[in-house]
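Thread title: Can someone regenerate the structure for this chain?

I was given the following input by a collaborator and told the matching structure tokens would be attached. They weren't. Posting the sequence so someone can regenerate them.
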Amino acid sequence: MSEQSIDAPPRVAGVASFWVGLLVNVTISVISGRDEAWDSPFYYVVGIPLMCIAIGFISYRFPRNPGRWTFFMSLGQCVAAVVMGRGIGVLIIALLFMMVLSLPQFITAVWTSRMGLSRQKTRPQSQSPLEHQSKQNDVDASSALEVKTTANEPSAERANKAE
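Best answer:
Regenerated them for you:
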């Protein structure tokens, strides 16, 4: 695996961020009956905290350059504003407004990405958690095998003495 593919941004994180922004925005627009989600108090009380939680998970898991996940989430909200709102005319306003309203998500993304980076530094780079677990299981199995053979040795010695 090349070094470039390791550092390449995971597409799933960008797609997930986009869809979270889109779905939260559309859901709040439908529930509140308003064209734009940010016209509803639910957007500020429920929507922004939900998006902060989602971006926190995404940025913790994919901690490199967390601002891009916030960008994709904002882009999803802008698409929802165009679809649910008054069409393409609202796009410029939505882009400007999303820059301001995405500050909590951006702060959350930066904070949780730092936690994710510190987690990666403490874990050995060469082993994934699954590799570490399988090696631990191999060690446990070999030590259990040694215990069984050691436990059987005295009975083998008694059999030799009886002959």
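The longest helix spans residues 129-162.
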